[in-house]
Amino acid sequence: MLGLIVTIIVVGLIAGALARLIVPGRQSMSIAMTVVLGIVGSLVGGFLGYVLFHKDSQDGFLQPSGLIGSVIGAVIVLLLWTRFGERGASRRV
Predict the structure, then answer these.
(1) DSSP assignment, residue 85?
(2) CB–CB of 46/21 below 8 Å?
(3) CA atoms of 45 and 63, how far apart (whole Å)
(4) What global pTM score does this model have?
(5) Cα–Cα distance between 64 and 52 in angstroms, integer?
(6) How many angstroms separate the CA atoms of 12 and 77, rounded?
(7) d(Cα 69, Cα 87) in Å, to the nearest integer?
(8) DSSP 3-state assignment of 29?
(9) Where is average pLDDT lowest: 6-10, 31-35, 59-63?
(10) Does residue 53 contact residue 32 with C-beta atoms inside 8 Å?
């Protein structure tokens, strides 16, 4: 169980960091938020992968395609965050 949690955190950090490198612009996020971005991106990427290709974790937990899906999901989440998160922040000021 502890190994699974550590794996999720490490994959989340890698996916979140790669997403922040891919998306242009400055994102003011902490390392913890980068990990959360990667974890949420992994969930989004896993869901999209299941919907499109009908494969899930029964085919193997840690796969290169899952890592790529995690990065793609994190990019989608980050683009949505920068698009809608900034708009909400500017209204509050």
Answers:
(1) I
(2) no
(3) 13
(4) 0.77
(5) 17
(6) 13
(7) 27
(8) coil
(9) 59-63
(10) no
The pair of three-digit structure tokens given for residue 50, joined into one six-digit string: 């299941």
9 band by pLDDT with thresholds 50, 70 and 90: confident
Say if CB 13 and CB 34 are below 8 A apart: yes
Asked whether the CA dihedral 27, 32, 34, 36 is positive or negative, the reply is negative
Q: Which pLDDT does position 19 carry in this prediction?
A: 92
- Token pair for residue 60? 């193997």
And the tokens for 30? 């902490």
Instruction: Give the whole-angstrom CA distance, residue 54 versus residue 51.
Output: 6
- Cα 13 from Cα 8, distance rounded (Å): 9
